[in-house]
Amino acid sequence: MTQPSLLSIVRTILSSDGNLTTEEVIKRVRARGLKSADQAIKKAVYNVRTDLKKNSSAPASASTSKAVDPSSTPTAAPKPGVDLTVVLSNVALVNAAVGASGGVDPTRQVAEAVRACGSVDAFLQHLELVAGIRSDERPS
After folding, report:
1. Full-prediction pTM beyond 0.90?
2. In contact, 26 and 6? CB cutoff 8 Å
3. What average pLDDT does range 102-120 have in this prediction?
4. Cβ 30 vs Cβ 44: under 8 Å
5. In the 8-state DSSP scheme, what is residue 136?
6. How many whole angstroms separate alpha carbon 123 and alpha carbon 21?
7. d(CA 13, CA 22)
8. Closest Cα to residue 40, out of 20, 10, 14, 17?
């Protein structure tokens, strides 16, 4: 079984306590057995913190909106706009990616790499750079 990626470990650590210092995160990463360089861990901490802040920031209108009484909202109501065909199509794509990557963990590492790059386009640019360096995997 493959070892979890540095990003996933840092994300797990910071998700449980986002107020940890970078040094404390480094200690916890080391305690989990990773031997990554301090600079790589610091970069991962920066990226994960940025991502967590971006994902946790709520729109300004949400903070000023009136609270909804939970008892007045049906709990089993289907989400509007959810297209089951699209969901199943995406599940099939993810399943194909899992098969091509050799399992769920390697696929998760690829997804984390895409997230760390900032966008799919940025990831693809980095992929082209790596492909140029690794000439043995260059398409013919």
Report:
1. no
2. no
3. 87
4. no
5. G
6. 29
7. 11
8. 10
pLDDT level of residue 63 (50, 70, 90 thresholds): very low
Contact by Cβ (8 Å): 135, 71: no
Strands (E), the chain: none
Give the mean model confidence (pLDDT) for residues 7-36: 87
Q: Please give the structure tokens belonging to residue 114.
A: 């895409």
Q: What is the mean pLDDT of residues 56-65?
A: 52
Q: What is the pLDDT of residue 118?
A: 84
Q: Give the pLDDT confidence score for residue 137 in this predicted structure.
A: 56
Q: Is residue 7 pLDDT above 80, yes or no?
A: yes
| CA–CA distance, 49 with 53 (Å, rounded to integer) | 6
Distance CA 137, CA 129 (A): 12
Residue boundaries of the structural domains of the chain:
1-57, 85-140
Helix and strand numbers, DSSP H then E, in the chain: 7, 0
Q: How many residues does the chain have?
A: 140
| DSSP-assigned letter for residue 78 | P
Please tell me the distance from the alpha carbon of residue 32 to that of residue 50, in angstroms, as a whole number.
Answer: 23
